[in-house]
Amino acid sequence: MIALLLACAFFLLIHFGVSGTRLRDALVARFGEGPYRGVFSLASLVGLLWMIRAYSHAPVIELWGKLPRLRPVAFTVVFVGVLLVVVGLASANPTSVGMEGRLARGAEGVRGITRITRHPFLWGVSLWALVHITVNGDLASLVLFGSLLLLALAGTTVIDAKLRRRLGERWQAFAASTSNVPFAAIAAGRNRLGPALREIGLVRGAIAIAVYVLIFALHGRVIGVPLT
Fold first, then answer.
1. What are the distances in angstroms from CA 5 to CA 11, 20, 151, 193, 216?
2. pLDDT tens digits, one per residue of 158-168
């Protein structure tokens, strides 16, 4: 369990202590955007692999135990999470790395999934992590998936703060037409669901469904825990 705690601490530290902070700005100014991204991506990969390995060797210490009755709800929430992740990755998003130039379009840059949330990938990861914490009910899962849940949720505000600091009015014009929390801008009347669904389209939705089915089919072989 110590190894898992250290791995999660390392992973959180490089994100909260570097990414989205003024230290990141200083490192980029000194070494350049490309080298910084390369080193940070490598560190993140090392941290993630360390977390996975440590989790696989962690002792099973039950807290509230497994909750098989919640499986139907869990499958539904994970499906929503997969939709957000896949559609988010398959869509141009001004908050993604390297796409900040799209923020100059202001409200015109808000299309598809960004009408629903400007951080679809992170919200998808949040739902996935929350489900795994709930249904597994053990300490190792709470540490691993709780760390990922914390990172994903906090990451939405960190990214917003970074872009607000760097882009000023361009960010404000974009943010006024979208929201961090899914559907908040639509509920507030600052955007509409109909255009979002049309712009997402059937192809992205079909890909998300295919990915979900693949995860469902291969979960037992890859993770060692069947979902059926």
1. 10, 23, 15, 41, 28
2. 888 878 877 77
